[in-house]
């Protein structure tokens, strides 16, 4: 009787197991107990809600296939969508005109038996068909006379053409030819004696009328001078580009997307492929392209672009008459050194009317890194050739 009672009590306390129940052994770990450092561990992706501007950017890129930087400008209200459509239509019209012109050129050249460059000149109206025919006839007569001179005097065709044009005479050509032959003989003799020397150096020694020993001494002295000059140049200029090169190396290693703001109110986005003191190579969907630094006003990371647009002030007076950067560094605007100290609050105005206000993180001879006042986390790299005015 006691045994039956035990079974009844056990059945009464029994609860059915759910359908998704899984029994784990002691050796098996539950998903909660898994170590995140394990290779098989997969963390759940955190869902991030997009802002309205980010949704617009995504929509413009998917619908019209435009660049992300242009889509961001339209979303922030800097450029209207109608203006972008007008630009694209103008580009298409130019391409169509170019294609139609090429078709006309090909058809015209096949009919009139002209070369493509000549037919292009005729269609553009640089000269008429009559002028072209007279020029061609004169050229044919010139070639006939040149070939006759070649047969009679055994001279090259280029010399015969020069004689017919009246630039030289036959006696002058023979005199210069004899001088060239004497020079060649002397250079070949030097080459036979000193086989280590190149034939070009032998010609230089003959032209300067010096000995081989003096030439070798001069070459050694020039090497020493060049080495000392290059070392001093590196010591003076490596510090100027060190900070920017470190920043570029960091962006390139992490493959951080950036936006370059160019002159002409244009912008391009992509990742930095390579860089040197004079240009930046950017990689995006269209491929790799070189952008000279003189054509770039400033650049920032792609995730800072929205904050940068919100913090920019525009000056209408400069925007109506923009300033292009001067290739000569001495003629550019000289920023006072007091404003370029670290953690100094400064406002910079650029050549096309953009105005940035923020604190200087660091500065060099060619660029300034600025953290914006409205959004301190967002930073902008401004090139000094683009700056027109600076004040506190």
Mean pLDDT: 80
CATH fold-level name of the domain at 238-391: SH3 type barrels
Radius of gyration: 37 Å
Unreliable stretches covering 5 or more consecutive residues: 1-15, 17-33
The fraction of residues in strands falls at 15-25%
CATH A-level architecture of the domain at 238-391:
Roll
Counted beta strands: 11
What general form does the structure show?
flat
Q: Provide the structure class.
A: alpha+beta
CATH class of the domain at 238-391: Mainly Beta
N-to-C span: 98 Å
Could you give the order of the helices and strands?
Answer: HHHHHHHHHHEEEEEHEHEEEEE
Number of helices: 12
Name the helicity range.
Answer: 40-55%
Main β-sheet description: 11 strands, antiparallel
3D structure, described in words:
With 392 residues, the chain is an alpha+beta fold. Among the domains are: 76 residues, no CATH class; 154 residues, SH3 type barrels, CATH 2.30.30. Helix content is 50%, strand content 17%. The protein has twelve helices and eleven strands. Strands 1, 2, 3, 4, 5, 6, 7, 8, 9, 10 and 11 form an eleven-stranded antiparallel beta sheet that branches. Strand 1 and strand 2 form a beta hairpin. The longest helix is centred in the middle third of the chain and has 43 residues. The radius of gyration is 37 Å and the shape is flat. The N terminus is likely disordered.
């Amino acid at each position: 009787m006691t045994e039956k009672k035990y079974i009844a009590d056990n059945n009464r306390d029994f609860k059915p197991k759910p359908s998704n129940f899984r029994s784990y052994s002691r050796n098996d770990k539950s998903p909660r107990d898994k170590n995140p450092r394990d290779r098989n561990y997969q963390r759940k992706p955190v869902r991030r809600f997009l802002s309205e501007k980010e949704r617009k950017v995504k929509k413009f890129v998917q619908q019209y296939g435009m660049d992300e930087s242009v889509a961001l400008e339209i979303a922030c209200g800097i450029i209207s969508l109608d203006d972008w459509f007008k630009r694209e239509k103008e580009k298409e019209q130019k391409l169509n005109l170019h294609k139609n012109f090429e078709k006309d050129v090909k058809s015209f050249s096949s009919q009139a038996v002209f070369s493509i460059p000549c037919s292009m000149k005729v269609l553009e109206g640089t000269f008429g068909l009559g002028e072209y025919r007279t020029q061609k006839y004169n050229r044919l007569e010139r070639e006939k006379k040149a070939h006759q001179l070649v047969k009679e005097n055994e001279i090259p065709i280029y010399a015969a053409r020069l004689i017919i044009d009246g630039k030289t005479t036959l006696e002058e050509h023979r005199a210069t030819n004899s001088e060239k032959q004497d020079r060649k003989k002397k250079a070949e003799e030097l080459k036979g004696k000193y086989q280590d020397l190149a034939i070009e150096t032998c010609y230089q020694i003959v032209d300067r009328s010096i000995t081989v020993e003096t030439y070798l001494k001069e070459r050694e002295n020039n090497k020493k001078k060049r080495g000392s000059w290059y070392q001093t140049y590196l010591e003076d200029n490596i510090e100027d580009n060190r900070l920017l090169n470190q920043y570029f190396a960091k962006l390139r290693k992490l493959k951080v997307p950036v936006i370059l703001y160019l002159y002409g109110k244009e912008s391009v986005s992509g990742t930095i492929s390579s860089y040197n003191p004079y240009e930046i190579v950017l990689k995006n969907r269209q491929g790799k392209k070189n952008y000279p630094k003189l054509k770039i006003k400033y650049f920032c990371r792609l995730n800072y672009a929205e904050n940068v647009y919100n913090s920019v002030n525009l000056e209408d007076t400069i925007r109506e008459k923009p300033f292009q950067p001067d290739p000569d560094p001495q003629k550019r605007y000289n920023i006072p050194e007091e404003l370029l100290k670290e953690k100094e609050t400064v406002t910079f105005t650029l050549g096309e009317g953009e105005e940035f206000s923020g604190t200087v993180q660091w500065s060099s001879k060619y660029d300034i890194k600025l953290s914006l006042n409205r959004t301190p986390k967002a930073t902008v790299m401004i090139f000094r050739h683009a700056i027109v005015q600076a004040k506190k």
